[in-house]
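task queued by scheduler; priority normal; single chain, no ligands, no partner chains; default sampling; output format set to structure tokens
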Amino acid sequence: MSAGGGQRWYEGLEAVQVVGHSAYGGGVPVILACMRVTAELGMHPVLLATHPDVIAAAETAGYEVWRFPGIVREPRPVRDLFAALRLSVALRRRDVRIVHTHTSKGGLVGRLAARLAGCRVVIHHTHGFYHAALPPGPRRWAMRTLETLFARLDDAQVFVNSGQAAEAEREGVVPRGRSRVVFNSAADPLAAGVPERAATRARLGVSEGAALIGTVGRVAFEAKGLDDGARAVALVMERVPSAWWAVVGKGEDERRLADLVRELRIADRTVLAGHVDGAAGLHPAFDVTFAPSRREGQSVAVIEAMACSAAIVATRIAGTADLIEDGVGGVVVEAGDAEAMARELVRLLEDARLAASLGQAARLRYEHLFTPEAFANRMREVYLEILEAKAP
């Protein structure tokens, strides 16, 4: 607080969220939620980003955007170092004292720049470690080493799931006691009412009588496992003649997925819908929501499905363990096991009572842990802890 006991030291200061050039994905609503919390605490939220979709989302929400060029998605050590130096100068000129970084590249460049600029508070939000996506070898070792070194530059590192937080401290990637867990959240897609099922299906070009499996998210093979998902769905269609698959979202592997469903001879019962406005509200139109991911921090799409009381089949990865208790709020299978995925999808398609029971349990868990209010409360606690510890 000030000497007079009124205004706190951080009130009115810019709190800059550093993202860089990452595309719009499940992490963006989380970043915008962080900005809301900083605004509620009396800071001035600013988003440093360059991707047009992310910028549009922030501006639509009414936040200031700082278009700082130079933070590219691909690893480029020399260019990244110069970007960090340039950003440190810019931070100092703006008198920024509070920086919250996101994504691996935003975290590397942003944390170095913030420390060089003398920022008082540096927080990093780990939506998923970049090195975990790389095959074993020198490149993975180098990236893990960088993430370990740069973790020493922040005051706290926020993880979206407890498994990665525990692993990072256990393996020394993050100093002990510095990790904080703040689950992702999603606004309730049903707050304005449940969308009419037949109309939603008609929008997707699927009849009411179909057994509809739905997948919502970025179209990516390596992280989202949609190649495994396609093979699992092909097995389902052999056993359930009325089965259809709707994939909602855009991504780098759209063409590969289209080729694969043709190769598997399921193209005539697969809807590749691309981007759909209000995609979170589509889950009630699905008989089962399917998330075959191999790797992600914590799926916002799965949280939205939980809010919609969806029956969910997901994979056993770190980002799902905090969301779904197997057999209670959904069904969890091993990532990459198309046969196991198909078996559980068929079971839920054929047992409507079980599907409804799982959906009800998922909704209760969403209300308890994954609402925007739950996120804001926990994120506020983290901010206040660090801000008060770093008071002048």
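post-processing summary
- The mean pLDDT is 91.
- The CA atoms of residues 340 and 386 lie 44 Å apart.
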